[in-house]
């Protein structure tokens, strides 16, 4: 195992932190996870600058120390020879921690056959500071673990009005009547980089995209629901358990090809 921490490459599975480190005590970190295409940070699908901008925006809003961006790029370049997926974490003092992982072995199967989703209707599962990717990801983590225990692969988070927000790992998209829909940022979701990429690309292709509020009644009218993130790209839902009421979707058609085209 390899990881990069504070300007150095380590080949072990342990990291040393002070017991008073706020990242350890409070989850006080910001992070971003990216998929590196063709082992290049400059590949347009990697969106390296967008991921760095995400980190910088959160750090500035939290009034934390900015990291050494050159060190981050150096560490990332060390790891992309082994790992196609990187997670870059920044601590309040500006230290960087970069880890790598592999793509899910069953990713192609998930994209082709879809996943079963579970609606996480409990305030316990709400994510804090929705506009930022912080180390305090406990709400989403608990929702995903509960979904897996129940036999599902992904959970969908909702707000106090039961409006759908996002999944535990990505942004939601829905299709009906010739238009793609995705929850608007104003409802309190993470502004995903993959989401932003697709919105711009679809509009360039003159394909309708609407950012809106996903109420429980409106969701039932959708012909297809998928989620996206920077790692898995596009994953469709074959079915979603809305606390006992099931929504089932036909994912065998050509609709998904519209989104897949962006990554080809």
TrEMBL record:
Manganese listed as a keyword: no
Presence of the UniProt keyword Lyase in the record: yes
GO molecular function, one term: 4-amino-4-deoxychorismate lyase activity
Family annotation (SUPFAM superfamilies): D-aminoacid aminotransferase-like PLP-dependent enzymes
Swiss-Prot/TrEMBL keywords: Lyase
UniProt record similarity statement: Belongs to the class-IV pyridoxal-phosphate-dependent aminotransferase family.
A cellular-component GO term for this protein: cytosol
Top-level taxon in the UniProt lineage: Bacteria
Species classification: Bacteria, Bacillati, Cyanobacteriota, Cyanophyceae, Oscillatoriophycideae
EC number: 4.1.3.38
Protein name (database record): Aminodeoxychorismate lyase
Top-rank EC class of the record's enzyme: lyase
Gene3D superfamilies, A to Z: 3.30.470.10, D-amino Acid Aminotransferase, subunit A, domain 2
InterPro entries assigned: Aminotrans_IV, Aminotransferase-like, BCAT-like_C, BCAT-like_N, Class-IV_PLP-Dep_Aminotrnsfr
A biological process from GO: carboxylic acid biosynthetic process
């Amino acid at each position: 195992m390899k990881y990069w921490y504070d300007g150095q490459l380590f080949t072990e599975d342990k990291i040393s932190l002070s017991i008073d480190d706020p990242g350890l005590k409070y989850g006080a970190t910001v992070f971003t996870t990216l998929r590196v295409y063709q082992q290049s940070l400059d590949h347009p699908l990697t969106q390296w600058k967008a991921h760095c901008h995400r980190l910088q925006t959160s750090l500035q809003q939290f009034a934390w120390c900015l990291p050494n961006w050159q060190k981050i790029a150096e560490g990332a370049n060390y790891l992309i020879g082994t790992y196609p997926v990187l997670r870059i974490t920044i601590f309040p003092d500006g230290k960087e921690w970069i880890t790598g992982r592999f793509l899910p072995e069953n990713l192609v199967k998930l994209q082709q056959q879809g996943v079963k989703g579970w609606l996480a209707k409990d305030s316990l599962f709400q994510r804090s500071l929705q506009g930022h990717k912080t180390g305090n990801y406990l709400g989403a983590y608990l929702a995903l673990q509960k979904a897996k225990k129940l036999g599902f692969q992904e959970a969908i988070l909702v707000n106090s009005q039961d409006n759908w927000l996002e999944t535990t790992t990505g942004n939601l998209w829905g299709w009906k009547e010739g238009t793609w829909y995705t929850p608007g940022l104003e409802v309190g979701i993470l502004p995903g980089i993959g989401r932003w990429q697709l919105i711009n690309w679809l509009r360039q292709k003159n394909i309708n995209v609407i950012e809106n509020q996903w109420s429980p009644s409106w969701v039932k009218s959708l012909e297809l629901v998928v989620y996206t993130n920077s790692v898995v790209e596009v994953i469709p839902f074959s079915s979603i358990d809305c606390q006992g009421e099931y929504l089932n979707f036909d994912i065998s058609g050509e609709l998904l090809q519209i989104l897949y085209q962006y990554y080809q």
